[in-house]
Amino acid sequence: MSSPAWAPRKRRNTELAMLIVAIALAVGARISVELAVNETVPASVYTFAVLFSAVALAAHFAVRFLLPYADPILLPLVVTLNGIGITMIHRIDLARQAKNATAGSLATSQMTWTVVGITGFIIVMAVVRDHRILQKYTYTFGFIAIALLLMPLLPVVGQEIRGARLWIHIGPFSFQPGEAAKISLAIFFAGYLVVKRDALALAGKRFAGIDWPRGRDLGPIVMAWLLSLGILVFQRDLGSSLLFFGLFVVVLYVATERPGWIFVGTGLFVVGAWFGYLNFSHVQRRVSAWLDPWANPDQNFQIINALYGMAHGGVLGRGWGEGRPTLTPFSFSDFILTSIGEELGLTGLMAVIMIYVLIVERGIRIALTCRDAFGKLLAIGLTASMAFQVFVVTGGVTHLIPLTGLTTPFLAHGGSSIVMNWAIIALLLIISHQTRRPAPEVLDFSADEETQVVKLK
Amino acid sequence: MNKPIRALAITFGLLFLSLLLGINHLQVVQATDLNARPDNRRVIDEEFSRERGSILVAGEPIAESVPVDTQWAFQRRYPQGKLYADITGYYSYIYGREGIEQTYNSVLSGNDDRLFVNRLVDLVSNKKPQGGSVELTINPQAQAAAAASLADLGNKRMGAVVAIEPATGSILAMASQPTYDPNELASHDLKSVQAAWARLNADASKPMLNRSTRSALPPGSTFKLITAATAIEDMGLGRKSMVKAGRELTFPGIDYTLTNSGGGSCGGNRITFEKSLAVSCNVSYGWLGLEVGQEKLADKATAFGFESKPLTDLGSYASHFTAKDKELEDPQLAQSAIGQFEVRATPIQMAMVAAGIANDGIVMKPQLVRTLRAPNTQIIEQIVPQELAEAMTPADADELTAMMVTTVDSGTGRPAKIRGVKVAGKTGTAQSAPDRPAYAWFVSFAPANDPQVAVAVLVESTKDTGDIAGGRLGGPIARAVMEAALR
């Protein structure tokens, strides 16, 4: 066997060029905000520009040296979202501080968390290097996931915020362990199903043109279902419950190639959703707010104002700093997309959604091209969780589907979300680096053509 | 494992496509409805912060936006406050709009389609959008006279005055008492606005009610003009024709008699048609009503504008001859013919009756607005006079005018006489219920040979008033307004 003639291009300079555009976009947006609100450009813009460029470039150079063959598009996409997010949060800060001069700066904390997130991103890339080593810790991650999910329920550290118990509080830090649990679960599901997939792929009865799984194989999916219901019941977190179950079903379906699992999963979801609707007033409130927000304008004040904001933005938007996003409660976190819809209009919001589409598209491409089953399942799991999350939160705040509390990746204010989403990108880049890098060199012993030597590292 | 991944790719594609379609629907299709919702603070604040156009009377603003240093950049001001309150209405952050502020909001706020080019220019030149102005037909002297003479009655007395230019339908004066100061409701001090609103609404005399257009009361003897107009046309009567009079009108087989006000005989059992109007003889007009019949009377009333809302510039009530589709019995018909029973008319409607007679029988649509202008003072619409109906022939109108002149010269309308000007008029005193005090009415126009102004005056009773006679209370007010308009 001859050494491969084709070597994939690294495209690191392309990444750098796109990254500079992403940084320019964030800095330009920041200047627009300052000009619109204060009519001057304060020195804080330079601080932001320098700091944001520094961390973004640090991320780039880390990829360049650690994972030279990694996907070149993901990083600029994520930096764009992160930059738009910080700028929008800063813009909302200005409005909050105009009302109350002592209000703290959420943008500063978001910037700090971005620095932490990118540091974590670099650490994950440096430590993991090859995603296959994660497979060794399949059950460790499974255990970590369970532990993380249980933490908010513990006394003292667990904390209930706005009716949902999904925070832990240690000293001055609060943390949403669900975000970290998501990654741990994706690793666990991938590692577990890569082993069990042959058994779970065995077909049972064929009915209505679908191969249904055997009854005795239903154990794992029922476990995942009960776990999700547990999150709904004990943490009252509709979004995470949906997300974790969806994640499991997707990975199971990809691992077994049996559409029957999708139908089983959908059926269990419908039963769970019905159970939730009948038993929990917070689920019923979300549904009634979706069916007719104006039936109870005081209770549904938030979604109504979000819709008004988007309508007021129209096609082109009010412009950075020219709208009134703060009329909507939590315009900087849960409803940051409607703030973008108001100020950047339909055009800007569609652009943001397209960035997510591209991230998901890159993730799927990584899953398709990955050569090992574990990597495929991990890549599709991480990508699917991102796609679900974006769909559920965007559909929720734009009144397409009932509202469920999930964070908007890279945009919404929140430390855990930023850090963990950067870690997801690090994992995707690791898988893509392992996939795209040239096949290991093989010594050419023409005499030994019968014997193939495969060197993995 | 690539097949399921491809299937997922398509699924995610569809999910994101539905998001894109959803926001397109929301921000393009639904946006108009959402922006029009009354609790949408973004739109309310934006409009409230805009430089709203002025409402002008004879070139002077009676409502204007002045720059201020509050959350909303402009304060709506009504320099003469109470004088024009019933016309301008108010522009309040909490309570919305009323009057011209409401009817012509699209022009005043600058949202009107005809101002699209202006908005585009403002957008391109980065200027704040500005509203257009509305110029009224009001004659400031007549308006001041109307308000002042109502005020002379004392502030306990409720009433309304409307003056119309007969040939065009232009409203020259429109005043209502008691009234309110719209500045109190337009204030940016929302606490004081709420207090003022509560106080005005708790007031039993309803200061925010525009009595000229929204107070439909029995018109009493002023309605005899419509009965007379019907009789002239239908029975071919002239002013010298003889009509039935006397002490009472009886109805065979019914225990009811219609008598004259004060119990007199109107000067005989048969008097001239002219005299019957001059002395406001109930017996004569009850009888005429029976002679012409319900249908013809109702038709004539409709021709003068009853049963519709002719004034579109302000919120108004329709006047009615009977309750809907009611078949009147003879005593009821006789009472209706003298403006009692279920006849209800607004002051503006009675002014239209006078104006119609004055304008050779042609009733013009009443208009409050003369010109709509863009912010750059360019005219966007010049309101043209509009004919509503030909209620009488010119000859019949002349005949009735002559009778009304006699009424002022030597009849019940003497208090409205103006030196050197021929005035045509008719008094009215009406009761809505036997145990309630009466309403005084007076309608007139002048000069009788070349009418420039037609007036209707309503003075409502209050509990502490014993007697009201249309001529005594309404006549001087009508005279003052006519004099001011003719000056």
Describe, in plain words, how this protein is organized in 3D:
The complex is a heterodimer of chains A (457) and B (487). By secondary structure, chain A is mainly α. In chain A, 65% of the residues lie in helices and 5% in strands. A 3-stranded antiparallel sheet of chain A has the order 1-2-3, with no helix packed on it. In chain A, helix 3 (74-99) runs antiparallel to helix 4 (106-128), helix 7 packs across helix 16 (415-436) and helix 14 (345-369) crosses helix 16 (415-436). Chain A is globular. The two termini of chain A are 18 Å apart. In chain A, 51% of the residues are buried. A 6-stranded mixed sheet of chain B has the order 3-2-1-6-14-15. A 5-stranded antiparallel sheet of chain B has the order 8-7-19-18-17, sandwiched between helices. A two-stranded antiparallel sheet of chain B has the order 4-5. In chain B, helix 8 runs antiparallel to helix 19 (470-486), helix 12 (224-235) crosses helix 14 (282-292) and helix 14 crosses helix 16 (330-337). The model of chain B has no long low-confidence stretch (mean pLDDT 88). The chains are: A mainly alpha (457), B alpha+beta (487). The interface between A and B is large, with 47 and 35 residues.
